[in-house]
Design goal:
heterodimer, A: alpha+beta, Gyrase A, domain 2, 2 domains, seven-stranded mixed β-sheet, 13 strands, B: alpha+beta, Cyclophilin, ten-stranded antiparallel β-sheet
Chain lengths: 220, 326
């Protein structure tokens, strides 16, 4: 596997952003991001490692270490780490497509130039990867969407998208862990809880996990 | 126990936040002016991370239902305990039945109230800070309402008769009333070089004002339009409080304590950690100026904060040793 040289930049006095992106999102680069994130947590003075989409934010204590040192160590981890070191859990998520809680289903199918049934079939036929968790608690950025099903984000975000909404934004898929604003399209809903603040393990999904959607119903 | 008499929803229970969960999408959160809350707690002999109240909307009133002690720090506002006025940054006893009143700030934006022992609330993911976006932490994950009652942890608090105050050298400039623009030290961020030379010059060479769209998640600024050399499509990436993003409108947004943990807009700079309190105390309409510094300067500013914190704890211990428990 060939992965390009990452770009490392300061993100304030206590963090570095390692950007491994070489244009469009790439699954091989993401596997390396997960592995480097785990390895970075063992570095002296590193407090948090936050995988993004083909990038990694590393938060450190600048009084215990320094940006140059952490940067050098990240660069060597990027070249030396085995990208296949993360074994994720498989999840099956029941999904009711369309209806009042999936109001963009018909528009999405029309945008793709496919029938509703074919759009749904393709969406449910894919295994998705949890590339990263972020933005809001427990929100999964899912990769693996059939390129035919991609749909650029809405020009005006909705102020409220309900918890459980299954959504599409460009080439990415996601599931809302809580009711929040979003510019992504709503294709259906699930009752699976992704975030429980009071639980011992508050977040259901982890980077590297795999997801399949199970068709619980289609309401055009 | 204390009871809230007058408040607004932006007023929340806060502590020093819940670091360590960014990779789960959970913001650090906590007091916007961390130093002010930490000092209020230290004045009472609490752990600096004990839970208190962040008052972003004044006036604010509460009633004590037990004899206890409070410290009020942050914004420079008129404070009274049972109709007796107190100076800003003051720790004092409050008797059962008396009211603590915070009037609108003369300077600054956010006040912090610490209580002897701290507010007794269950920690969620290691913190009592209110995460309004996720509706957890603090009091039922929401802002404070009139009639809310909050229990205090048991405490032995030693204060001199009449209380005592804290004077902060580095905040003395702020007491001038922000007649000139507030200076914020910044480090360049990932996309700094992707902006036009004009935008780079305007960023540090011109003044910015804080628009009405300002809350614990972030502040939208108004000023010159910052343009990129060419349009950029970035993949989502982790961001920290202080990140200055520039959306397509060209008007910057500073991400703050409750910001989303990931973003996608180009980042021109990051306000250094040691200056985030200045933003917490900058009200809507305040003017800002960004001053570029080196990583060495930003690290030294943090080191100075830590040194100062240790000195404050030592001084506070001296005060306590000469005082009686209330």
């Amino acid at each position: 596997m060939v992965v390009g040289t990452p770009h490392i930049s300061l993100a304030g006095s206590s963090a570095l952003l390692l950007d491994g992106a070489q244009g469009a999102f790439d699954d091989a680069t993401q596997e390396l991001v997960w592995a480097v994130a785990n390895a970075a947590l063992t570095l002296e003075g590193v407090r948090e490692a936050v995988p993004g989409m083909n990038n990694l934010l590393v938060v450190f204590d600048p009084l215990a270490t320094d940006a140059h040192g952490v940067g050098d160590q990240l660069m060597s981890l990027w070249t030396c780490t085995d990208a296949h070191a993360v074994a994720g859990t498989h999840h099956t998520i029941p999904l009711s497509y369309g209806g009042a809680r999936g109001e963009d289903l018909a528009g999405w199918a029309a945008h793709c130039g496919l029938s509703v049934d074919e759009t749904v079939r393709r969406h449910a036929a894919t295994t998705y990867s949890v590339a990263a968790i972020g933005a809001m608690p427990g929100f999964p950025y899912l990769s693996g969407l059939d390129p035919r099903l991609a749909w650029a984000r809405r020009s005006t975000p909705r102020l409220k998208v309900a918890e459980g909404a299954v959504i599409i934004g460009g080439a990415q898929a996601g599931i809302m862990p809580m009711t929040a604003p979003s510019g992504w399209h709503i294709i259906g809903h699930t009752d699976v809880k992704l975030f429980r603040a009071e639980a011992e393990l508050p977040v259901l999904l982890r980077p590297g996990d795999k997801i399949r959607f199970e068709i619980a119903g289609i309401e055009a | 126990m204390i009871e809230i008499l007058t408040t607004g929803l932006p007023n929340t229970v806060q502590d020093l936040g819940r670091p360590g969960h960014l990779a789960l999408g959970v913001s650090h959160g906590g007091a916007m002016d961390r130093q002010a809350l930490a000092i209020a707690n230290l004045m009472l002999g609490n752990d600096p991370s004990a839970a208190g109240i962040e008052v972003a909307l004044h006036p604010f009133r509460l009633r004590a239902h037990i004899d206890t002690a409070v410290a009020v720090t942050g914004a420079d506002c008129a404070v009274s305990v049972g109709d007796r006025p107190c100076p800003p940054w003051w720790a004092m006893t409050i008797r059962a039945g008396k009211a603590l009143v915070l009037e609108a700030p003369r300077v600054g934006a956010r006040s912090y109230i610490a209580f002897a022992g701290g507010l007794d609330l269950p920690p969620v993911m290691g913190s009592r800070a209110t995460d309004v976006k996720g509706s957890f932490g603090g009091l039922a994950g929401r802002g404070l309402s009139r009639g809310d009652q909050l229990a205090l942890n048991p405490a032995q608090c030693r204060l001199p008769a009449g209380g005592f105050g804290a004077a902060l050298k580095e905040r003395r400039g702020a007491a001038g009333g922000f007649a000139s623009a507030i200076e914020l030290r910044v480090l360049p961020a990932a996309e700094f070089d992707a902006f036009t030379p004009e935008a780079q010059a305007a960023f540090t060479g011109s003044e910015w004002s804080i628009t009405n769209d300002a809350n614990r998640m972030g502040y939208r600024l108004a000023g010159e339009t910052l343009s990129l050399l060419s349009p950029l499509e970035l993949l989502s990436h982790g961001i920290v409080p202080g990140t200055v993003q520039v959306p397509p409108s060209g008007q910057p947004i500073i991400q703050l304590a409750d910001a989303n943990t990931c973003g996608g807009y180009p980042k021109i700079a990051t306000v250094i950690e040691a200056d985030l309190w200045r933003l917490a105390q900058a009200p809507v309409g305040a003017r800002l100026r960004f001053v570029p510094v080196s990583i060495e300067v930003s690290t030294e500013a943090l080191r100075a904060n830590r040194r100062w914190h240790d000195e404050f704890v030592a001084a506070r211990n001296l005060v306590a040793a000469r005082s009686r428990p209330n």
